[in-house]
Specification:
With 347 residues, the chain is α+β, with helices and mostly antiparallel strands. The chain has two domains: 2-95, no CATH class; 103-344, no CATH class. The chain contains eleven helices and 13 strands. It has helices spanning 58-67, 76-90, 92-95, 103-113, 118-130, 133-146, 177-186, 189-194, 251-265, 268-276, 307-322; strands at 2-10, 13-22, 25-32, 39-42, 52-54, 98-99, 198-204, 213-214, 228-234, 237-245, 295-302, 329-338, 341-344. The strands form three sheets. Strands 7-9-10-11-12-13 form a six-stranded mixed β-sheet, sandwiched between helices. A five-stranded antiparallel β-sheet has the order 4-3-2-1-5, with helices on one face.
Length: 347
Protein backbone atom coordinates (compact mmCIF):
# COMPACT_ATOMS: atom_id res chain seq x y z
CA UNK A 1 0.00 0.00 0.00
CA UNK A 2 1.32 3.45 -0.90
CA UNK A 3 -0.13 6.88 -0.15
CA UNK A 4 1.53 9.96 -1.56
CA UNK A 5 0.99 13.48 -2.81
CA UNK A 6 1.68 14.11 -6.49
CA UNK A 7 1.42 17.00 -8.89
CA UNK A 8 -0.12 15.56 -12.05
CA UNK A 9 -1.30 16.64 -15.47
CA UNK A 10 -4.38 14.53 -16.13
CA UNK A 11 -6.04 15.15 -19.48
CA UNK A 12 -4.38 18.59 -19.71
CA UNK A 13 -5.48 19.63 -16.21
CA UNK A 14 -2.62 20.29 -13.81
CA UNK A 15 -3.49 19.78 -10.16
CA UNK A 16 -2.37 18.14 -6.94
CA UNK A 17 -3.66 14.66 -6.13
CA UNK A 18 -3.65 12.40 -3.12
CA UNK A 19 -2.66 9.06 -4.66
CA UNK A 20 -3.63 5.83 -2.92
CA UNK A 21 -2.30 2.56 -4.29
CA UNK A 22 -3.84 -0.52 -2.69
CA UNK A 23 -4.43 -4.06 -3.91
CA UNK A 24 -3.30 -3.31 -7.43
CA UNK A 25 -5.70 -0.35 -7.74
CA UNK A 26 -4.63 3.29 -7.88
CA UNK A 27 -7.07 5.99 -6.84
CA UNK A 28 -6.45 9.66 -7.58
CA UNK A 29 -8.19 12.20 -5.38
CA UNK A 30 -7.85 15.80 -6.45
CA UNK A 31 -7.06 18.16 -3.58
CA UNK A 32 -9.63 20.91 -3.47
CA UNK A 33 -9.88 23.84 -1.11
CA UNK A 34 -10.06 23.95 1.86
CA UNK A 35 -7.16 21.54 2.10
CA UNK A 36 -7.22 20.87 5.87
CA UNK A 37 -10.72 19.39 5.56
CA UNK A 38 -9.44 17.19 2.70
CA UNK A 39 -12.56 17.65 0.61
CA UNK A 40 -11.45 15.75 -2.44
CA UNK A 41 -12.93 14.72 -5.74
CA UNK A 42 -12.50 10.97 -6.06
CA UNK A 43 -11.81 9.90 -9.63
CA UNK A 44 -12.68 6.35 -8.65
CA UNK A 45 -11.16 2.92 -9.16
CA UNK A 46 -9.62 2.01 -12.47
CA UNK A 47 -10.23 5.40 -14.08
CA UNK A 48 -8.59 5.62 -17.48
CA UNK A 49 -7.02 8.86 -18.67
CA UNK A 50 -6.22 10.13 -22.11
CA UNK A 51 -2.91 11.35 -20.68
CA UNK A 52 -1.15 11.44 -17.33
CA UNK A 53 2.09 13.33 -16.71
CA UNK A 54 3.96 13.32 -13.41
CA UNK A 55 5.97 16.33 -12.35
CA UNK A 56 9.35 16.11 -10.70
CA UNK A 57 9.31 18.59 -7.86
CA UNK A 58 12.60 18.80 -6.02
CA UNK A 59 11.23 21.07 -3.29
CA UNK A 60 8.81 18.46 -1.97
CA UNK A 61 11.71 16.10 -1.33
CA UNK A 62 13.65 18.87 0.39
CA UNK A 63 10.66 19.59 2.60
CA UNK A 64 10.38 15.91 3.43
CA UNK A 65 13.94 15.97 4.72
CA UNK A 66 13.17 19.05 6.84
CA UNK A 67 10.03 17.49 8.33
CA UNK A 68 11.48 13.97 8.50
CA UNK A 69 8.55 12.71 6.42
CA UNK A 70 8.84 10.29 3.53
CA UNK A 71 7.03 11.94 0.57
CA UNK A 72 6.21 8.47 -0.76
CA UNK A 73 4.42 7.48 2.43
CA UNK A 74 1.92 10.19 3.37
CA UNK A 75 -0.05 9.45 6.52
CA UNK A 76 -3.18 11.17 7.76
CA UNK A 77 -1.36 12.89 10.61
CA UNK A 78 1.19 14.58 8.35
CA UNK A 79 -0.94 15.17 5.25
CA UNK A 80 -1.96 18.65 6.43
CA UNK A 81 1.71 19.63 6.66
CA UNK A 82 2.15 18.73 3.02
CA UNK A 83 -0.95 20.41 1.68
CA UNK A 84 -0.26 23.58 3.68
CA UNK A 85 3.15 23.68 2.05
CA UNK A 86 1.56 23.32 -1.39
CA UNK A 87 -0.91 26.05 -0.49
CA UNK A 88 1.85 28.46 0.46
CA UNK A 89 4.27 27.77 -2.36
CA UNK A 90 2.28 26.62 -5.36
CA UNK A 91 -1.04 28.44 -5.51
CA UNK A 92 -1.07 32.27 -5.52
CA UNK A 93 -4.88 32.21 -5.60
CA UNK A 94 -5.17 30.10 -2.47
CA UNK A 95 -2.15 31.63 -0.77
CA UNK A 96 -4.11 34.74 0.11
CA UNK A 97 -6.58 32.50 1.98
CA UNK A 98 -3.96 31.85 4.66
CA UNK A 99 -4.81 34.33 7.41
CA UNK A 100 -1.61 35.87 8.81
CA UNK A 101 -0.89 35.64 12.51
CA UNK A 102 0.80 38.89 13.47
CA UNK A 103 3.58 39.27 15.99
CA UNK A 104 1.39 41.28 18.35
CA UNK A 105 -1.37 38.66 18.14
CA UNK A 106 1.15 36.05 19.26
CA UNK A 107 2.00 38.28 22.23
CA UNK A 108 -1.70 38.75 23.02
CA UNK A 109 -2.40 35.01 22.82
CA UNK A 110 0.62 34.28 25.01
CA UNK A 111 -0.58 36.76 27.64
CA UNK A 112 -4.10 35.35 27.43
CA UNK A 113 -3.21 31.69 27.58
CA UNK A 114 0.07 30.97 29.29
CA UNK A 115 1.21 34.09 31.05
CA UNK A 116 -1.29 35.88 33.26
CA UNK A 117 1.12 37.19 35.89
CA UNK A 118 -0.15 40.68 36.73
CA UNK A 119 3.05 41.69 38.48
CA UNK A 120 5.01 40.97 35.30
CA UNK A 121 2.47 42.89 33.22
CA UNK A 122 2.77 45.82 35.60
CA UNK A 123 6.56 45.88 35.24
CA UNK A 124 6.26 45.52 31.46
CA UNK A 125 3.88 48.50 31.35
CA UNK A 126 6.36 50.65 33.29
CA UNK A 127 9.22 49.59 31.01
CA UNK A 128 7.25 50.33 27.84
CA UNK A 129 6.02 53.66 29.21
CA UNK A 130 9.64 54.65 29.76
CA UNK A 131 10.81 53.33 26.36
CA UNK A 132 7.90 52.50 23.99
CA UNK A 133 10.08 51.91 20.92
CA UNK A 134 9.90 48.10 21.11
CA UNK A 135 6.07 48.10 21.27
CA UNK A 136 5.88 50.61 18.41
CA UNK A 137 8.19 48.41 16.32
CA UNK A 138 6.11 45.33 17.18
CA UNK A 139 3.01 47.15 15.93
CA UNK A 140 4.77 48.29 12.74
CA UNK A 141 5.97 44.76 11.98
CA UNK A 142 2.51 43.35 12.71
CA UNK A 143 0.83 45.85 10.40
CA UNK A 144 3.24 44.94 7.61
CA UNK A 145 2.37 41.28 8.16
CA UNK A 146 -1.37 41.89 7.83
CA UNK A 147 -1.76 44.83 5.44
CA UNK A 148 -1.80 42.76 2.23
CA UNK A 149 -4.34 40.23 3.50
CA UNK A 150 -7.51 40.52 1.45
CA UNK A 151 -10.82 38.91 2.42
CA UNK A 152 -13.04 41.72 1.18
CA UNK A 153 -14.81 39.37 -1.23
CA UNK A 154 -17.10 38.28 1.60
CA UNK A 155 -19.28 40.04 4.11
CA UNK A 156 -19.01 39.89 7.86
CA UNK A 157 -21.14 36.79 8.22
CA UNK A 158 -23.47 35.96 11.03
CA UNK A 159 -21.48 33.57 13.16
CA UNK A 160 -23.34 31.83 15.95
CA UNK A 161 -23.09 33.83 19.14
CA UNK A 162 -24.33 33.16 22.60
CA UNK A 163 -27.52 35.00 23.38
CA UNK A 164 -26.92 38.06 25.50
CA UNK A 165 -28.27 37.94 29.05
CA UNK A 166 -31.02 40.24 30.18
CA UNK A 167 -29.67 43.76 30.47
CA UNK A 168 -29.12 45.00 34.03
CA UNK A 169 -31.23 47.95 35.10
CA UNK A 170 -28.09 49.94 35.89
CA UNK A 171 -24.67 49.81 34.25
CA UNK A 172 -23.12 49.63 37.70
CA UNK A 173 -25.03 46.39 38.33
CA UNK A 174 -22.96 44.61 35.65
CA UNK A 175 -20.69 41.82 36.80
CA UNK A 176 -19.72 40.31 33.42
CA UNK A 177 -18.69 41.59 30.01
CA UNK A 178 -21.78 40.29 28.21
CA UNK A 179 -24.00 42.09 30.74
CA UNK A 180 -22.28 45.37 29.86
CA UNK A 181 -22.76 44.66 26.14
CA UNK A 182 -26.41 43.83 26.77
CA UNK A 183 -26.81 47.13 28.61
CA UNK A 184 -25.21 49.03 25.70
CA UNK A 185 -27.46 47.36 23.13
CA UNK A 186 -30.77 47.51 24.99
CA UNK A 187 -30.94 50.35 27.47
CA UNK A 188 -27.59 52.12 27.48
CA UNK A 189 -27.35 53.85 24.09
CA UNK A 190 -27.53 57.23 25.84
CA UNK A 191 -24.58 56.40 28.06
CA UNK A 192 -22.49 55.67 24.94
CA UNK A 193 -23.70 58.70 22.99
CA UNK A 194 -22.98 61.02 25.92
CA UNK A 195 -19.36 59.83 25.70
CA UNK A 196 -19.34 60.40 21.93
CA UNK A 197 -19.73 56.77 20.83
CA UNK A 198 -22.37 54.78 18.99
CA UNK A 199 -22.72 51.01 19.19
CA UNK A 200 -22.19 48.92 16.02
CA UNK A 201 -21.73 45.25 16.88
CA UNK A 202 -20.07 42.79 19.25
CA UNK A 203 -17.45 40.04 18.90
CA UNK A 204 -15.96 41.80 15.89
CA UNK A 205 -13.10 39.95 14.17
CA UNK A 206 -11.63 41.10 10.82
CA UNK A 207 -9.69 37.83 10.42
CA UNK A 208 -12.79 35.68 10.08
CA UNK A 209 -12.75 34.20 6.56
CA UNK A 210 -15.23 31.55 5.43
CA UNK A 211 -12.84 29.82 3.04
CA UNK A 212 -9.62 30.63 4.86
CA UNK A 213 -7.21 28.84 7.13
CA UNK A 214 -5.01 30.17 9.88
CA UNK A 215 -1.30 29.46 9.68
CA UNK A 216 -1.87 26.63 12.15
CA UNK A 217 -3.99 24.87 9.53
CA UNK A 218 -7.26 25.41 11.43
CA UNK A 219 -10.27 26.80 9.61
CA UNK A 220 -10.72 30.58 9.75
CA UNK A 221 -14.49 30.23 9.38
CA UNK A 222 -14.82 31.18 13.03
CA UNK A 223 -12.61 33.67 14.80
CA UNK A 224 -11.41 31.16 17.37
CA UNK A 225 -11.28 33.61 20.25
CA UNK A 226 -14.59 35.36 19.59
CA UNK A 227 -13.26 38.75 18.52
CA UNK A 228 -13.06 42.12 20.22
CA UNK A 229 -15.81 42.83 22.75
CA UNK A 230 -17.50 45.70 20.89
CA UNK A 231 -17.11 47.70 17.71
CA UNK A 232 -18.15 51.33 18.15
CA UNK A 233 -18.08 54.47 16.01
CA UNK A 234 -16.87 57.93 16.99
CA UNK A 235 -16.54 60.94 14.69
CA UNK A 236 -16.78 58.66 11.65
CA UNK A 237 -13.99 56.35 12.83
CA UNK A 238 -14.34 52.66 13.74
CA UNK A 239 -13.45 52.05 17.39
CA UNK A 240 -12.40 48.65 18.73
CA UNK A 241 -13.50 48.41 22.34
CA UNK A 242 -12.46 46.04 25.10
CA UNK A 243 -14.48 45.80 28.31
CA UNK A 244 -13.00 44.98 31.71
CA UNK A 245 -15.40 44.41 34.62
CA UNK A 246 -14.49 44.45 38.30
CA UNK A 247 -11.42 42.24 38.82
CA UNK A 248 -11.17 41.21 35.18
CA UNK A 249 -7.76 41.50 33.46
CA UNK A 250 -5.96 44.82 33.77
CA UNK A 251 -6.29 47.71 31.27
CA UNK A 252 -2.74 47.19 29.96
CA UNK A 253 -3.72 43.73 28.76
CA UNK A 254 -6.82 45.31 27.18
CA UNK A 255 -4.55 47.73 25.31
CA UNK A 256 -2.58 44.83 23.79
CA UNK A 257 -5.87 43.20 22.77
CA UNK A 258 -7.12 46.39 21.16
CA UNK A 259 -3.85 47.07 19.34
CA UNK A 260 -4.06 43.54 17.91
CA UNK A 261 -7.53 44.12 16.47
CA UNK A 262 -6.86 47.72 15.41
CA UNK A 263 -3.96 46.48 13.27
CA UNK A 264 -6.16 43.82 11.69
CA UNK A 265 -9.04 46.25 11.07
CA UNK A 266 -7.01 49.29 10.03
CA UNK A 267 -5.90 48.25 6.55
CA UNK A 268 -7.11 49.58 3.18
CA UNK A 269 -8.58 46.16 2.36
CA UNK A 270 -10.59 46.03 5.58
CA UNK A 271 -11.89 49.58 5.10
CA UNK A 272 -12.96 48.68 1.55
CA UNK A 273 -14.67 45.62 3.00
CA UNK A 274 -16.52 47.74 5.58
CA UNK A 275 -17.66 50.11 2.81
CA UNK A 276 -18.77 47.24 0.59
CA UNK A 277 -20.56 45.41 3.41
CA UNK A 278 -21.39 48.14 5.96
CA UNK A 279 -22.11 46.51 9.30
CA UNK A 280 -25.81 46.88 10.15
CA UNK A 281 -26.02 49.24 7.15
CA UNK A 282 -24.76 52.10 9.30
CA UNK A 283 -24.18 55.09 6.99
CA UNK A 284 -20.84 56.05 8.58
CA UNK A 285 -19.19 53.05 6.92
CA UNK A 286 -19.94 54.41 3.44
CA UNK A 287 -17.77 57.44 4.25
CA UNK A 288 -14.65 55.55 5.35
CA UNK A 289 -11.43 56.55 3.60
CA UNK A 290 -9.49 53.46 2.58
CA UNK A 291 -6.56 55.65 1.50
CA UNK A 292 -5.82 56.59 5.11
CA UNK A 293 -7.50 53.99 7.33
CA UNK A 294 -7.63 54.94 10.98
CA UNK A 295 -8.99 52.84 13.83
CA UNK A 296 -9.54 54.20 17.33
CA UNK A 297 -9.25 52.19 20.53
CA UNK A 298 -11.49 52.35 23.59
CA UNK A 299 -10.78 50.57 26.87
CA UNK A 300 -13.91 50.39 29.02
CA UNK A 301 -13.53 49.71 32.73
CA UNK A 302 -16.77 48.96 34.59
CA UNK A 303 -16.77 48.84 38.40
CA UNK A 304 -13.01 48.39 38.05
CA UNK A 305 -10.24 49.68 40.29
CA UNK A 306 -8.75 51.36 37.24
CA UNK A 307 -7.49 54.73 38.46
CA UNK A 308 -3.89 53.87 39.35
CA UNK A 309 -3.41 51.70 36.25
CA UNK A 310 -5.00 54.34 34.00
CA UNK A 311 -2.59 56.97 35.34
CA UNK A 312 0.36 54.80 34.37
CA UNK A 313 -1.21 53.57 31.13
CA UNK A 314 -1.95 57.12 29.97
CA UNK A 315 1.81 57.79 29.75
CA UNK A 316 2.25 54.94 27.26
CA UNK A 317 -0.95 55.84 25.39
CA UNK A 318 0.24 59.41 24.81
CA UNK A 319 3.56 58.20 23.41
CA UNK A 320 1.83 55.73 21.07
CA UNK A 321 -0.54 58.42 19.76
CA UNK A 322 2.29 60.89 19.22
CA UNK A 323 4.82 58.49 17.71
CA UNK A 324 3.81 59.15 14.09
CA UNK A 325 4.92 55.61 13.21
CA UNK A 326 1.52 53.90 13.48
CA UNK A 327 -0.58 55.04 10.50
CA UNK A 328 -3.46 52.68 11.32
CA UNK A 329 -3.91 54.10 14.83
CA UNK A 330 -6.21 56.98 15.64
CA UNK A 331 -7.11 57.95 19.20
CA UNK A 332 -6.89 55.76 22.29
CA UNK A 333 -9.70 56.39 24.78
CA UNK A 334 -9.54 55.30 28.41
CA UNK A 335 -13.07 55.20 29.81
CA UNK A 336 -14.81 54.09 32.99
CA UNK A 337 -18.27 54.18 34.45
CA UNK A 338 -19.54 56.57 37.05
CA UNK A 339 -22.83 55.01 37.99
CA UNK A 340 -24.69 54.68 34.68
CA UNK A 341 -22.51 57.19 32.84
CA UNK A 342 -19.45 56.40 30.74
CA UNK A 343 -16.68 58.89 31.45
CA UNK A 344 -13.38 59.66 29.75
CA UNK A 345 -10.32 59.40 31.96
CA UNK A 346 -8.38 62.64 31.98
CA UNK A 347 -4.90 61.77 30.69
Amino acid sequence: MSKRLEKLNIDNKISWYFVNEQGGTTRYRELQYPFPDLRCFDLGDGTEFESLERFEWQRIRELGEELHIDPNSIKKENLIQWVRFVLQHESPILKKMIVPTTAIRKLYEFMRGEFKDREFRSKLLDALSEAPESLIELCRVSYAQFVSYDNQSEGWGSSVRKKLPEAPVNLSDSSKTNEVVSYFTKVGATCLSNAGFSYVTREFNPRRTTNGVFESGLSARSSGAGGIDVLLMKNGNPVVGEIKVKDDADPFYALIQCLTYAIEAGTPNQFLRMKKYPIDQQPEFFELDEQSPNVDICIICINHSHVEMYKRLSVLVKKLEESGDLPFLGKIYLTHNSGNDLKHFEK
